[in-house]
Amino acid sequence: MRLDELTQRPWNYVTDSGVPWLMAGLVCLINGGAGLITHRLPLNYQTIPSLVGILCMLLVFLAARQVNLRVIAPRGGYVEPDDRFDPRNWIWIPSALVGEAAILLLLRFLTKLGWEQVIWPGFAICLAFIIAGVGRQIKRPRMYWFALYLLALGAVLLWARVGPEMTWLAIGVGVPLTVLGAIRLRKFLKENPAE
To answer: What CA–CA distance (Å, rounded) separates 189 from 170?
Structure first.
């Protein structure tokens, strides 16, 4: 076994359970759903869905922690990936910001649309490149499929001219993550029955 494979094992174990994907998908769906509801309410009531959404997102984080402690750990052991701060792991952030700015400028130049109409499609496209880069770095070529999906989502959002709301991007990201997380969790539970 190679050293890089050995160091990746804790993260692989955590992600293979499906819980992080399910949690991220549910958070995106809640965020998108709250946004959909917010913009359809009178101005006096627009903060209510956002507050309820934040509360629901906190509940998702707490539920994910409980699932990890009570369902995942008894079946496969408890793993705490090393999360010490290493500046080399975060060097991609400035690159991503420059890339996002370049994509936004390019989209604005090519489409002649306003900033509010290119911001979220541009973010989806930039996120696609980040996902592809992470997939390459951690040797998970299946992440390329999600990157392609994000490119397509960005194109659809640009074509639909969704405007300044990130609602549809959140829903578009949340649906596949939730489905993937649920499938992985179900597979994990089948392969690791409770003793």
So the answer is: 28
Range of the domain at 111: 3-83+92-191
Find the DSSP H helices in 17-166. 19-38, 47-67, 73-76, 92-111, 115-137, 143-160
Cα distance from N-terminal residue to C-terminal residue, the chain: 29
Q: Is 97 exposed, middle or buried (0-12, 13-18, 19+ CB in 10 A)?
A: exposed
How many distinct structural domains can be found in the chain? 1
Q: Using CA atoms, how far apart are residues 39 and 21, in angstroms rounded to an integer?
A: 27
| pLDDT tens string 129-187 | 888 888 887 778 888 999 999 999 988 888 887 766 778 888 999 999 999 999 988 88
Q: Is 127 exposed, middle or buried (0-12, 13-18, 19+ CB in 10 A)?
A: buried
- pLDDT (tens digit, 9 = 90+) per residue, 97-123? 777 778 877 777 877 777 777 878 888
Classified as helix, coil or strand, 69 is helix
